Amino acid sequence: MTIQSRTAPAPTRTRRGTEIRLQDVTKQYGAHQPAVDAISLTIAPGEFMTLLGPSGSGKTTTLNLIAGFETLTSGAISLNGADVGALPPHRRDLGMLFQSYALFPHMTVAQNVAYPLRERRMPRDVIAEKVAAVLELVQLTGRDDDYPQQLSGGQQQRVALARAIVFDPKALLLDEPLGALDRNLRGALQTEIRRIHREVGSTFVFVTHDQEEAMNLSDRIALFNAGHIEQVGTPEQLYREPETLFTARFLGDSNVFPLEGGVGDGTTGWEGHTWHVDPASVSRHRGVRSRAAVIVRPEDVRLARTPDQIPEGANRAPARVTDVEYMGSYRTAMLAFGSGEARGRARLDAVEATVSPGDDVIACWRPERQRVVAV
Length: 375
Ligand code: ADP
Ligand code: MG
Fold this sequence. Notes:
Elements: E1 20-27, E2 36-43, E3 48-52, H1 59-67, E4 74-79, E5 82-83, H2 89-92, E6 95-97, H3 109-119, H4 124-137, H5 153-165, E7 171-175, H6 183-200, E8 203-208, H7 211-217, E9 220-225, E10 228-233, H8 235-240, H9 245-250, E11 255-258, E12 267-270, E13 273-276, E14 292-296, E15 302-304, E16 315-326, E17 331-337, E18 343-348, E19 360-365, E20 370-374
The structure holds adenosine-5'-diphosphate and magnesium ion (MG).
């Protein structure tokens, strides 16, 4: 996973995008648990916002509510301050891209892309100009007269993307658009989508259940859990400063130490060890005072063989190495801590490269690299 530091869109920057605001948005199907339960979220003009979460957590329902394919049970949705809750989809002027390309098979690439413009009764020469420009943007210049079945899956999805943005929609909504593509192609198209977002400058709302994809693409991520939003932030914030164990676990690997008691002032205890706690590392989530866990990312854990190898001021936990995984460019030790309930992993650097399964080690980390989260 690549963690890139990305600044949130500055309000002073000129942006052509649309602000999308959801206020206490709820969708309930029949007598079931609400699919989306009173969520509030403001997406800034020009922002790349990803709705991330496990299957069934309410991402598609939220996107469909924004698009107008579903009606609100309660709450409000506005585009640039104008309430759109009562508008049909075509009046909201939003571009949509789904996992299935949904191209018209009997139309050429150019005819597919021109379709939304012909629907809007634009003059022929304007249509030709816009189609040429957008085909260049998605790097399909020269494929105008091909039919969809003559194109690869990745190319078909580029055509669908071109068709979704050719009419300069207020925003582009994408629901797992890369889900049907193989891993390499996904990576290539992620890079393409980021470039197109930069060039077009409009608001993108992207749905995925793939945390790596969300990390790679997004300005900010809204993490969904069972119909509510668990946390919103930049990829780096969600990875480095999760408020809950759910967030910590959904975005990357962690060493997790469930705490028996609460968090003390400056220290906490785990299986007889006293650990330093940096107050800034304690989640602001209100649940943290009753049920909490300490989490440490694998890259922040060092393994010592003997106590004299532990750096000054480090927190520590004895561990047994249960396995060593080869990850390509680095290796990871799987760890069982203390009495064995807590499990985790440490990324190995060259110095520690000699550890093997069965070794007893001391896992240690700098207190400011740990995080106390609500469970
Ligand atoms: P996601 O996109 O995150 O996988 P969805 O938004 O599709 O999740 O679904 C959220 C919840 O709403 C799920 O429990 C799903 O079964 C339910 N749901 C979605 N659409 C309908 C529908 N048309 N009728 C009844 N339940 C639905
Ligand atoms: Mg979905």
